[in-house]
Design goal:
- This protein has about 375 residues and is mainly beta.
- The chain has a single domain, classed as Tachylectin-2, Chain A (5 Propeller), CATH 2.115.10.
Length: about 375
């Protein structure tokens, strides 16, 4: 059950393995990740361990860990969330939860139901709820949220992926599509827009959540990224789309990068980088004077980064940002950079990653990384 409920997000759905208690984080010494040794900078970043994000007492495992500064506070979103007991609705898991925090504080707050359980961030439709009750935790609809996108009134936009999970292991899932939801200020329960913005098999841009201000009212542009596994290979392809933020609910307003220009034909999107496991975070970094992409390596606890002059690239070769210390055979995943928490003009980054602990447990862990 755990392998289906807390997926590694590597290639959108590898499960975590039971493991011993975690060892403390250690920064990389001189070992480069094998696929990128030729492209490593002469010195590696320095890393400072910050610790695990807090969880409600009933919760023993969370994955994901996207976040955004919304209304002056950090809004954290999580994917599969496991509990030691059932919430007031009878479920002992959630496929999406959220919590609020201040700055890089590890102490988060969130409303809890009468049983002490966090609320489902993305409420199910009646049909989805009936299916989940009938199928149990192994056969279900899952709604996995991405990075919150702050709105001027203190609310947030949430893109999410919907999947139909089966009972036959890590790869038994079917993409349903990508949807959009709205979260009121201070809330942890969103309102989903009817239907899906990008029904499968249409490309569903939903990750990253990079907003570039234009200076004119209503002219901000939202850039979204999508990572897809390459069948039969330990590799993935990342593509990018964009939309005027004021038209985020309008399917026809989206455009994809085709390698030379932006096109309304989303199927013509071309890969802009390879090798990300599940998702990519992209932000403008003033210290580097470039856009910074951060992601987890495939089947690896290495966290890698690339730079580019524009949100669509061209991106540099990957460099090692840090390696999470994990017991042999275990893997950290879902690495995400949080630009709102950076300091020293972007030289020091805050990065989170999902840390499976075994025995149906898992945390979201934070580190501070200072670039050379």
């Amino acid at each position: 059950m755990w392998r289906r409920l807390l997926p590694l997000t590597i290639l959108a759905g590898f499960g975590c393995q039971p493991r011993a208690a975690p060892r403390p984080f250690v920064a990389p010494a001189s070992r480069p990740p094998s696929p990128t040794s030729a492209s490593l900078p002469p010195s590696l970043p320095s890393v400072r361990d910050l610790g695990d994000l807090s969880m409600p007492r009933l919760v023993v495992g969370r994955d994901g860990g996207a976040a955004g500064l919304v209304g002056g506070r950090m809004l954290w979103t999580f994917g599969d969330t496991l509990m030691t007991g059932a919430g007031a609705d009878g479920f002992n898991y959630r496929s999406a939860t959220a919590a609020w925090g201040d700055g890089a504080s590890l102490s988060l707050t969130e409303p809890l139901d009468a049983a002490g359980a966090p609320f489902q961030l993305l409420p199910y439709t009646d049909d989805e709820l009936a299916y989940n009750r009938a199928g149990g935790p192994g056969v279900r609809y899952a709604l996995w949220p991405g990075r919150p996108i702050a709105m001027p009134d203190g609310s947030a936009l949430l893109f999410y992926g919907e999947l139909k999970v089966g009972s036959h292991g890590n790869f038994d899932w079917t993409a349903v599509g990508t949807g959009l939801a709205h979260l009121a200020p201070g809330s942890t329960v969103a309102t989903r827009e009817p239907g899906l913005l990008f029904p499968a098999p249409e490309p569903g841009f939903s990750g990253g959540g990079l907003v570039i201000p234009d200076g004119a009212a209503g002219a901000d542009t939202l850039y979204l990224y999508r990572v897809d596994p390459i069948p039969g290979k330990l590799d993935s392809e990342c593509r990018v789309g964009r939309v005027p933020l004021a038209r985020v609910s309008d399917h026809d307003a989206y455009a994809a990068w085709d390698g030379a220009a932006w096109t309304s034909d989303l199927a013509r999107a071309v890969p802009i980088l390879h090798g990300a496991a599940g998702g990519v975070s992209v932000s403008w970094n003033a210290y580097l004077g470039a856009y910074l992409a951060v992601y987890s390596g495939i089947f690896s606890s290495d966290v890698l980064y690339r730079t580019a002059p524009r949100p669509e690239g061209p991106f540099s070769e990957p460099h090692l940002l840090f390696t999470a210390a994990m017991p042999s055979g275990q893997t950290a995943y879902a690495a995400t950079e949080h630009p709102e928490l950076s300091s020293d003009g972007g030289r020091t980054l805050v990065v989170s990653y999902a840390r499976p602990l075994g025995g149906f447990r898992g945390t979201v862990h934070l580190v501070a990384v200072t670039l050379p």
